[in-house]
Specification:
Helices cover about 30% and strands about 25% of the residues. The protein is built from 10 helices and 14 strands. Strands 3, 6, 7, 8, 9, 10, 11, 12, 13 and 14 form a 10-stranded mixed sheet that branches. The protein has a two-stranded antiparallel ribbon with strand order 1-2. The protein has a two-stranded antiparallel sheet with strand order 4-5. Helix 4 packs antiparallel against helix 10. The N terminus is likely disordered.
Length: about 325
């Protein structure tokens, strides 16, 4: 895509074993189900993340809408697990960790507010924001132009679609065209599902190949189970997530990621953003200022490195960058 920074151009998926952090404390609940979230500097006190002290950025806080500054907290909708962006620290736990969770905590620390996280199915996040159930979305959401009809995005990373298949690649999948005629699993309402239906199916047809047999599932983990159950030859998800799953599942013995040299960042690489409703543009500006401050002081890079996904980093926090 155009306007990619040097860091975006050199993006490559690098998954690392998760180092669980024990910093999740504050509980939060919603109609969609509660999830433990991270404390922030609602009282103006500094917060420590990954051993780094984060102080309030006065310039960023000055941009906060009055109602949020007075309340001192916001609730972010997220759909966990979607490693390494949002996931539970261990099976059966309500505590969340991941790139999005730590980044949300850090942004809250810069703004002097608490950012709580609540579970919400991905396809219901935008309707839930419109219903007033949440204040923002932090859920590895693609900053698509279509979603900009409803949301303003503060862009914080970039990634494309990756292909996850069985270890050893017994189905000889080397590029996305090798998915034509095969069973492919995706999470419903994702950009991966749209990529298949809107683009890849036509390319299969143009080359005289059978269409992709696409199956949609409620969660990404369900799509991966379709592979192990023999119901799909591959699943589609963001490439950093695919790499993380391949590396950490069964010590790397169950899955592998297809590496297409023509798409080292993943297919159709796009920006990911923190979404707020369009009538809260002032809140988006505050988030942008806080995120830029995190980029400047090294916290942003430290969070990405904690989960082995430095390659998804971008050089500048933009607002609705995909529109340009």
């Amino acid at each position: 895509m155009e306007h990619l920074t040097p860091r975006l151009r050199r993006f490559a998926c690098a998954a690392a074993a998760l180092s669980i952090t024990g910093m999740l404390a504050t509980g939060c609940a919603s109609a969609a189900g509660g999830a433990e979230s991270t404390p922030s500097a609602a009282d103006g006190a500094p917060v420590e993340i990954l051993g780094k002290q984060i102080d309030v950025d006065d310039d960023a806080r000055a941009l906060l809408p009055d109602d949020i500054a007075e309340t001192g907290s916001v609730t972010a909708a997220t759909d966990a697990p979607y490693a390494p962006f949002e996931m539970f620290v261990e099976e059966g736990s309500d505590e969340l960790t991941g790139v999005d969770v730590l980044l949300g905590q850090a942004i809250g620390a810069k703004l002097g507010i608490t950012v709580d996280f609540a579970q919400q199915g991905f396809d219901g996040i935008i309707p839930a924001l419109q219903a007033g159930n949440y204040d923002l979305a932090i859920s590895a959401m693609t900053s698509s132009v279509e979603r900009m009809d409803v949301l303003t995005f503060v862009d914080y990373s970039a990634s494309g679609t990756g292909i996850l298949t069985r270890a050893g690649n017994p189905d000889d999948i080397e590029t996305y065209l090798d998915l034509c005629g095969k069973n492919v699993a995706v999470q419903t309402a994702t950009s991966q599902a749209a990529l298949v239906t809107d683009v890849w199916q036509a390319e299969c047809e143009a080359k005289g190949l059978e269409p992709i047999a696409l199956s949609e599932f409620p969660s990404d983990s369900d799509a991966q189970l379709a592979i192990t159950a023999g119901k799909a030859q591959a699943s589609l998800l963001t490439k950093p997530s695919a790499g993380y799953v391949a590396k950490t599942t069964n010590d790397g013995k169950t899955f592998m990621v297809v590496e297409d040299p023509e798409a080292p960042n993943g297919y159709d690489a796009t920006l990911n953003g923190i979404g707020v409703l369009k009538d809260r543009a002032d809140f988006a500006q505050a988030i942008q200022k806080a995120l830029q401050s995190l980029m400047a002081d090294g916290t942003y890079d430290a969070i990405l490195a904690e989960f082995g996904v430095e390659g998804i980093g971008i050089d500048d926090a933009t607002i609705d960058g995909a529109a340009s």
